[in-house]
Design brief:
Two copies of one chain form a homodimer. In chain A, the strands form two sheets. A six-stranded parallel sheet of chain A has the order 2-1-3-4-5-11, with helices on both faces. In chain A, 46% of the residues lie in helices and 17% in strands. By secondary structure, the first copy, chain A, is an alpha/beta fold. Strand 2 of chain A pairs antiparallel with strand 2 of chain B. The structure holds a DNA duplex.
Amino acid sequence: MVTRERPTLEAVARRAGVSRATVSRVVNGSPTVAAAIRETVNRAVEELGYVPNQAARSLVTQRTESIALILPETASRVFSDDLFFPAIIRGVGAEMEAADKQLVLMMTGSAKSHDRVERYAVAGHVDGVMFASVHGADPLPGTLSRLGIPVVCSGRPIGGPTVPYVDVDHFGGVAAAVRHLVQAGRKRIATIAGPQDMVAGIDRLAGYRATLATAGLPEHVAIGDFTRESGIIAMRTLLAEDAKLDAVFAASDMMAHGALLALKEAGRRVPADVAIIGFDDFEISRFSEPPLTTVRQPIVESGRTMARQLLALINGEPGLPDAIVLPTELIVRDSA
Amino acid sequence: MVTRERPTLEAVARRAGVSRATVSRVVNGSPTVAAAIRETVNRAVEELGYVPNQAARSLVTQRTESIALILPETASRVFSDDLFFPAIIRGVGAEMEAADKQLVLMMTGSAKSHDRVERYAVAGHVDGVMFASVHGADPLPGTLSRLGIPVVCSGRPIGGPTVPYVDVDHFGGVAAAVRHLVQAGRKRIATIAGPQDMVAGIDRLAGYRATLATAGLPEHVAIGDFTRESGIIAMRTLLAEDAKLDAVFAASDMMAHGALLALKEAGRRVPADVAIIGFDDFEISRFSEPPLTTVRQPIVESGRTMARQLLALINGEPGLPDAIVLPTELIVRDSA
DNA sequence: CCCGCATGATTAACCGGTTAAGTTCATGTT
DNA sequence: AACATGAACTTAACCGGTTAATCATGCGGG
């Protein structure tokens, strides 16, 4: 390991025959530098391979140029084939890269890690914090926000939006899906709902209920946790409770896929006997048997939007919306 | 936004009636502090809610306590239903959390971002760098390593291992899979290989070739890019070239899944007409139709291992291995 | 010819820690 | 009693930048 000495501002200054301050100004593109000097300094920077030390810079600017993305630990443990968080990361990452900011990933869940995140953010390691999918009424976003740290959540926080957030139109998407089933003449429309401590779970169930109520149809609810296995179990339960149900709205594609498996196991044909609609529009749904009708939610876009919001917040841009809700869209394939 | 002033060492020192140096020593757990003073200082820290400023600390210690994980940007394109990188992230993240280090995520691929990563690492923003799956003969890991920056790769780098790496036993896993097919009496065993600019693609194809050669059977190769769609296309090609093939080893589960779809489309039964084995053992493979026989590779574990290696390297631990190869295992289900 | 004023560079203070060197003081030696 | 020793604290230098305040220089105007 060589650990070659890296040149400092001082070194560049000496080489260019100017003061540290002038080099600093050149490096930061200040306009009050004569062209000739700028040229000389740039050459020196080039020759020495100078790269500014971020720690030194942060110390005085009070900015770190990096941003934390908090992922619920539970998610990564439970959802070993979850595609939601990767997509969020992708969206956020793209935006961060465009803004030349660094992305720091943190998992949280345990009280210990929870505390760790708080200390980390408070210590000024990052200029802002994003939360990907808040579970329950997590107080952390509010706490950080109150401490003056810019925060944006993906998913409307439960218990009053005390922080800006980006979410998708769960309700509208579900309503479109359920209406689609109603219009196809389905009468016994069940749902496999998501966890009721997450807004995505709550809102999608609400959309189902409201739309069925409007249509004057009875509701039939089983609860899952967004995973395929929970979808299988929920579908079996639903069938046991109502052998004649003719449609199911599953609050996630994974659960819809599980339902598909359970229906096949029970000898039901899809969509002939039972129609099924999912929510997410993951790649996999194009290839399921049959291909899944589903509500597309723009996950990557929501990551990007969250990142853009946070950057704007950090830059102190005025008139930022507290909430942004992205549209969802019903994608009709063969399952309904 | 409040942006409450955060207390500094100085403030704590004043409150505790000692010098900055003493507080620093207490905070860093130096043994040369009297118990009484330590107590007083800790109380002051508590009361003021003091959290050390990492930038200031890094400036003098030359350590940032954070580590970069580089993901190939191309991956993020494939990412849309890729489960490999999320698993790597999970493994690395767990280990980083345990070591109380921060994880900085960077995507690279374009020459521009490539340069960005280099500058970032060289600027001392991170104490070390991990590469998740190196494409082709990427010079970046070697470059950074030569500059004295601790580097570990996931996947043996092509073109001579100039950097320590962690990989899985592709060859052994594939050999077991192909032997399984041979022992089942399959005679026309094709493969859908992965991209040949990645070690995972190369080694798996080599394993296939060597094992078939040993068995005295002819080879039959189509190339994919690890995605489901490429699996579909490759399978169609293989069938067109040899309508009588009776087995396929696909170098990824996604491609195996694609192959399954293409075989169904062609009216072939699995495993009766054609046996199929994948590689990865993603969750999805337990639920495919039929459930997929596959080679399990410990992705999360490989992320953890890579992280542990890097931390050891950073700590200057002696006698570290240049390469660690984790075992793979054939998981027999219904497809072969 | 001298003054005032831009313009552009320099000086020096500061960001918030760490740590080597120096100081103080109680204790042990002879 | 004089002095070496060592424990525990303080002083002060330093890490590598940024930036407000200051200063030098050249130029147009009176």
